[in-house]
Amino acid sequence: MKSLFKVTLLATTMAVALNAPLASAAAPAKDAPAAASANAVFKNDDQKSAYALGASLGRYMENSLKEQEKLGIKLDKAQLIAGVQDAFADKSKLSDQEIEQTLQAFETRVKTAAQEKMEKDAKENADKGKAFRDTFAKEKDVKTSSTGLMYKVEKAGSGDAPKDSDTVVVNYKGTLIDGKEFDNSYTRGEPLSFRLDGVIPGWTEGLKYIKKGGKIKLVIPPELAYGKTGVPGIPANSTLVFDVELLDIKPAPKADAKPEAAAGDNAAAGAKAK
């Protein structure tokens, strides 16, 4: 019976070979010396491939150790390497059962540490977000709605305000409260088009405060954005800051009872989290 460690090692190596996400995590650093591969001497492609798999696996393991350290778990790199070597030499110091039990306990530790860190970060984000909103509220012309949405109309626009069933076309920039940008249609060079009731509540409400040609700054509390879960690029309990320009409003056809698809993959800023 193969040990769990051997099976895990084989699966990891195969993932690299098949260009699974593991391979991208193990990509060479941009500043890696170009001469490194030029100076390497391999007798044949099998040797070179074996070395490449080993290097890719090593980088992946190094990245994994760094991620675990962020959770307060510091594994002994020397013992990790020794475990790999012993597994290949079939001289493991642990039985298959001991390996399985140890890895199960380790997985539990990692999950617990990750959950604790997530809860800590979420609380810090909530506290920092409130402080940011309190400061923003004191700026000139800032208004706060009954839902907690904060906004500053920079240009009112003209015509009618959009309705829930309308499709709007906007340009926007979205940042966290520390200024870190997570989405920008200006940079992409492509405005975003979506049905107004198909996005986060902060947008659905906020865009009704301007008309075609209008511009608005939205400061959206987490409960009107992505809440306690967050999404990739937007941590849990994040207060979001958007600068939005309403380019066009397209009323829904009267016979249209079905919502349009909202925003697609580009709507990291506005689409509802699922």
From TrEMBL:
<dbReference type="InterPro" id="IPR036944">
    <property type="entry name" value="PPIase_FKBP_N_sf"/>
</dbReference>
<dbReference type="GO" id="GO:0003755">
    <property type="term" value="F:peptidyl-prolyl cis-trans isomerase activity"/>
</dbReference>
<feature type="region of interest" description="Disordered">
    <location>
        <begin position="254"/>
        <end position="274"/>
    </location>
</feature>
<keyword id="KW-0732">Signal</keyword>
<comment type="similarity">
    <text>Belongs to the FKBP-type PPIase family.</text>
</comment>
<feature type="compositionally biased region" description="Low complexity">
    <location>
        <begin position="260"/>
        <end position="274"/>
    </location>
</feature>
<dbReference type="Pfam" id="PF01346">
    <property type="entry name" value="FKBP_N"/>
</dbReference>
<comment type="function">
    <text>PPIases accelerate the folding of proteins. It catalyzes the cis-trans isomerization of proline imidic peptide bonds in oligopeptides.</text>
</comment>
<dbReference type="InterPro" id="IPR000774">
    <property type="entry name" value="PPIase_FKBP_N"/>
</dbReference>
<protein>
    <recommendedName>
        <fullName>Peptidyl-prolyl cis-trans isomerase</fullName>
        <ecNumber>5.2.1.8</ecNumber>
    </recommendedName>
</protein>
<dbReference type="InterPro" id="IPR046357">
    <property type="entry name" value="PPIase_dom_sf"/>
</dbReference>
<dbReference type="InterPro" id="IPR001179">
    <property type="entry name" value="PPIase_FKBP_dom"/>
</dbReference>
<dbReference type="Pfam" id="PF00254">
    <property type="entry name" value="FKBP_C"/>
</dbReference>
<keyword id="KW-0697">Rotamase</keyword>
<keyword id="KW-0413">Isomerase</keyword>
<feature type="signal peptide">
    <location>
        <begin position="1"/>
        <end position="25"/>
    </location>
</feature>
<feature type="domain" description="PPIase FKBP-type">
    <location>
        <begin position="165"/>
        <end position="250"/>
    </location>
</feature>
